[in-house]
Amino acid sequence: MDFKFYDNIFLDIVSETYFTGNVFFCTEKTWRPIEAMTPFVSFGPQYFLKNLRQLGFETFSNWWSEDYDKYSYYAKLPEILKIIDDVGSWSINECNQVY
User: Fold this and answer.
1) Bridge partners of 14?
2) Distance of CA 8 to CAs 3, 5, 25, 61, Å?
C-alpha cells in the first residue's frame, strides 16, 4: 500500500462503508491509517471504536473525546466535527507530541 500521502496529514477522517445498524465490519478505510500509524476519527456504526478496542487496538481517547462512538449516525457527525475543529487548532508541536 502506498502511504506517501500520510506523510502530509495528521488526522485521517475515516468514513466506513457501514455506518448505521448493529454491525462491525472494519474495511481498508480503517486499516489504512492503522497501518500508516496515523491518528484517525471514525465515522462508523455505533460502538465501532469499542469493538476495535475489544480486538486489542488502542484508540485516541488520551488526546480527544471518543464519546462520539456511543452515538448513532445523526448524533455522531456533530461530535466528530468538534474533534476536527479542536485538532485543527493544534500547533505542529502539539501534533508531534501525540505522535
Assistant:
1) 42
2) 10, 6, 28, 23
38-90 tens-digit pLDDT: 999 999 999 999 999 999 999 999 999 999 999 988 899 999 999 999 999 99
The reply to whether the predicted model has a pTM over 0.85 is yes
pLDDT at residue number 1 = 66
Residue by residue, what is the 3-state secondary structure of 11-62? CEEEECCCCCCCCCCCCHHHHHHHHHCCCEEEECCCCHHHHHHHCCCCCCCC
What lies within 8 Å, CB to CB, of 9 at 6+ separation is 38
CB-based contacts of 64: which residues, under 8 Å, 6+ apart? 41, 83, 86, 87
The C-alpha cell that represents 63 in the structure block:
488526546
